[in-house]
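cron nightly-structures :: item 1 of 1
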Amino acid sequence: MELGLEERKMQPSSAFQQMRELTQLKAAFPEYQTVHVHVLQNVIKKLGRAFERMWTLGAGFPRFKSRQHDHSFSFNNTGFRLAGKYLQIAKIGNVKVRLSREIPDGGVIKSLTVKKSASGWYACFAVDGLPQRLAHSDAIIGIDLGIEDLAALSDGTFVKNMRVYEQQQKELRRAQRRLASRKKGSHGRAKAMRLLARFHEHIANRRLDYRHKVTTALVRKYGTIILENLNVQSLARGILSKQVYDAGWSRLVALLKYKAEGAGRRVIEVDAKYTSQECPACGHKKRKLLSERVHDCEKCGYTTHRDTAAAQVILARMEPLGANEGGITPCVA
């Protein structure tokens, strides 16, 4: 909202103060009278978060955005109502919707975000309800995240890395060349831009869908999941940056954490230093090249897959924290 940022630049004011002034703003600018007050309030909240990131994280000063930049608007607990196959939105009207899944019994819709993506419009509901906790499980597993395989488990199993971006890189290049060959400002360029955006969204959706399936299976099977605390931003600066981003470790860990919390499971991160160099059997450390895919300890003779050994080291680092007490069964090959 341009006026909100302009006011912040001219004179210091808080987000709460700006929200109190919305009545006068809507009276002075008739175009804002067609917008629900919650939509305007949430835009001011976004602006407030941008200033918080500037002060706490060192981000740049918030900038004015074009009308094409933001493709979503949000309501709080009022201004909308879900009635059967229709979503009633204030100031807009009735919109037909197709739910990807039913609202759980007893769940209360707390907020609505309407978002436009390359493939169409989506309504995202935030539902407040009781979490579906799973049956208690004593099983504990160590997981080593990687590129050759998305994850190696301490019991010797592996989770395949789909490499979605790498698989569809040729088609993506063709779409990018098609966009580059179109004249700027033409209808053909706009169409090529939409097709490229849909292709990127398709890749992101495939990657996210696979990670949802992987994390759901892990949370259902194991009561405690041990991960290494990776610095993904640092790893992405190396020669394998494309592969690191395609693996999507950060999103995978985030999905694991929130699903585990709702299901009554535990996800704990341990120090990631030397997990690929340390022997899980005797603790001897030896530097390995990336090309070495087998762990063969020269001190005790323990031999296994390199990533499996790293996952077993990650699992062992949990024991000093007391996670292996109370009958928890480690899942080790």
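cron nightly-structures :: done
The chain has three domains: 2-56, 72-128, 139-163+195-330.
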